[in-house]
Amino acid sequence: ADAQPPSSLGAIEGSVTDLTGALVVSATVRVRTLTRVAVTDSVGTFRLDMVAPGRHTIAVTAVRLAPAEA
User: Fold this and answer.
1) What burial letters (b/e) apply to 26-61, b meaning 16+ CB within 10 Å?
2) Which of 2, 8, 27, 30 has minimal Cβ neighbours within 10 Å of its Cβ?
3) What is the pLDDT of residue 2?
C-alpha cells in the first residue's frame, strides 16, 4: 500500500479564564469558520482538532461572562 502524506491539519488548544484569572468551566469555544465547538473541561481547558493552518477567530461564550473573540 502507498504511504499517505501527513495531514496538514492541526489543533487549537488552550484555557479560558475570566478577568480575574479564574478558569472558566463549561465555556463554549469555537472557530468562526468551523461548525465544531469545544466545551472547556473541569479545569477550563479545551481542544479543537482538525483545524487548517492559518489565522482564525476564536469565539468564547459562557454563563455570566460577556461573549468574547480573539
Assistant:
1) ebbbbbeeeeeebebeeebebebeebeeeeeebebe
2) 2
3) 56
Sign of CA dihedral 44, 45, 51, 53: positive
Half-sphere exposure at residue 8, Cβ-oriented, CA atoms within 13 angstroms: 3
Instruction: Quote the cell numbers at residue 63.
Output: 454563563
Rounded to the nearest 5°, which phi and psi values hold at 48?
-115, 115
Other beta carbons less than 10 A from residue 16's beta carbon: 24
Q: Give the pLDDT confidence score for residue 6 in this predicted structure.
A: 59
pTM of the model: 0.78
Q: What does the pLDDT read at residue 63?
A: 84
Amino acid at site 68: A
